[in-house]
Design a protein that fits this description.
The structure is a homodimer. Chain A has about 325 residues and is of the alpha/beta class. Chain A has eleven helices and 14 strands. Chain A starts with 9 loop residues before the first helix and ends in a 7-residue tail after the last strand. In chain A, about 45% of the residues are buried. Chain A binds a DNA duplex (16 and 16 nucleotides) through helix 2 and helix 4.
DNA sequence: TTGTATGCGTTATCAT
DNA sequence: ATGATAACGCATACAA
């Protein structure tokens, strides 16, 4: 009908229905009210196309049904799927997701936390690279993959176990000499345990291994150089590679193919994450699959059903090996 | 210091600083105020760790600096990158993104629009499959890829032009007989024009073509059957294929390889979208690249710098061909 | 059971 | 320039 008048309020509905303000509020919130009144109010609501103003409501109730989610970006399939899963877990509980991309920037991460506090969100879920993120005590925060210690709970995959599984699977598939390759943040974090688990398993099995570990920012060619250095007469020094992520595994795979080394015949590769082509097709490579749905569900339930005080500080969820064609089985 | 007391308000800051409420408000909003007062207020803010309550602010100003973004999911790299770009465009303008995944569900799409209205967002950007989405007149909405007509502006790639470019490129690369494959929504939408552009170019060039068009939900095997039907003595009837998306192109590519048909030697393939491995590595296939940054920027600027009345109703942004290894150049 | 009045935290309009 | 006060839209304690 009308063109650009302000949205109707409860007062408008009350007037339209010929009842008091409080009655409208009760109808809206499903509180008991006389049948005839309810109907009149509902008709008025429909007629005016009335919508509750969640800002006014939030101001009163101090509940916003909104959770802030911060990850570096939505370009990387891992972060995108994580955000997707968190969003679904939230939606199931009738909560909304306020999203922030941090781009790995410490200042932005801190700024977004402040923004989230202003927004009075019911909680914050973040995958942060800021080692000394300051966060107000009155908004619950759950960290993914980065253990801040003390008050802030952290949820992650069983990275250590995943590293072990990778080494064991390669050896089980006949590999006699392994390599581990990693590029990543130098900030202490859970994914760094992938290496530890890998090494632990190699040593337990008495299998020799080589490491190539570089920090973020290092050009990829460092790995090409590494591979070439370890190639003699067209043959690699190792026959099994564990890459810290599927993304790196994919790049290594391409380099090896260019070098004329066959995968998985000459060398087998296992990545980490469980990334699929286009999100839902086949795996990029053989991989350690992270339980993203469970991680998301755990984070959300910790935020919303906060038993607070006695929350465990670090939760590692089980991972699973999946063959994606870059191993023999 | 304190443990679980309510967050401090302006009133607390005023008391702490020994000034009036209005003065605090002015300091917070950068309005002119006596230097000595400003400093005292700023100190009090720091001391109490005060944060503006955006709910109270939004209630007063009727401005939330929040835009709702609805796409089917964040699993598909296309949607994820779209959401990423929109988020960046919003962040640049100091706006936040409230995200909703619709899962292609008409009811959810409608529900989320209602939710967004309740949240009093400053606008809605959606990629909706609901042909008769109802939306309140007082929240600006911009649609991506789906033209609703009339009041609601639509932003999309130049799908028609992209279809033309694909056909022309294939012919330029030596193809003599083409095929177009599509799986998608039967709802009228902009991406369907890819086919029209393709056909138009084929006819203009006098090049024969075959179409395989199925609706969402059709099993992929329909394409395998199609390919087999068009294979005689190990040779395909056509030597150039245009797929409606990179995702489909990738699947076709795999099928062809299984059939022992070489790409791009025996048949060249062009997809659509410009999807990259892990978001930022190489293209999955030769493709028509959608200008996602521009699409996002356009949507955001239409929402926020709404010149309203005279907005054009359909904006098609230029696409670009990129070789991704499944064509000869 | 229904209506009235107060306050949530902020901005903005007033006097001062 | 600064301080008091009224709204914003809603929930709720209280009165009718």
């Amino acid at each position: 009908m009308s063109e650009n008048n302000p949205a109707p309020t409860m007062k408008d509905v009350a007037r339209e229905a010929g009842v008091a303000l409080g009655t409208v509020s009760k109808v809206i919130n499903g509180l008991p009210v006389g049948e005839s009144y309810r109907i009149r109010v509902e008709e008025a609501v429909a007629k005016l196309n009335y919508r509750v103003n969640s800002y006014a409501k939030g101001l009163k109730t101090n509940k916003t049904y909104t959770v802030a989610v911060m990850v570096p970006n939505l370009i990387s399939p891992f972060f995108a799927k994580l955000a997707d899963c968190i969003n679904r877990s939230l939606a199931r509980r009738k909560h909304r997701m306020l999203f922030y991309a941090t781009d790995y920037d410490h200042n932005q991460e801190q700024e977004y936390v402040i923004l989230a506090e202003q927004q009075k969100v019911d909680g914050i879920i973040c995958l942060s690279y800021n080692p000394d993120l300051k966060v107000s005590e009155n908004i619950p925060l759950v960290s993914i993959d980065r253990y801040f210690g003390g008050q802030i709970p952290c949820v992650s995959s069983d990275n250590y176990g995943g590293g072990r599984i990778a080494a064991e699977k390669l050896v089980e598939n006949g590999c006699r000499s392994l390599a581990f390759m990693r590029i990543g943040s130098s900030v202490t974090n859970e994914p760094n345990k992938r290496k530890d688990g890998f090494i632990n398993a190699c040593e337990a099995m008495g299998v020799p291994y080589t490491l190539k570990i570089v920090d973020d920012g290092t050009p990829y060619s460092a790995f090409e150089d590494f591979l070439r250095e370890h190639t003699h007469k067209g043959k690699l020094d190792f026959d099994g590679i564990f890459c810290v992520t599927d993304s790196l595994a994919y790049q290594i795979l391409r380099t090896l193919r260019q070098m004329g080394i066959r995968v998985p015949e000459d060398v087998q590769i296992i990545g980490f994450d469980g990334t699929r082509h286009f999100g839902d097709q086949d795996f990029f490579c053989s991989t350690i699959v992270q339980p993203l749905e469970e991680i998301a569900e755990t984070c959300v339930s910790m935020i919303l059903e906060k038993p607070l005080g006695k929350a465990p500080s670090l939760i590692c969820l089980p991972v699973q090996y999946a063959c994606g064609g870059t191993t023999k089985s």
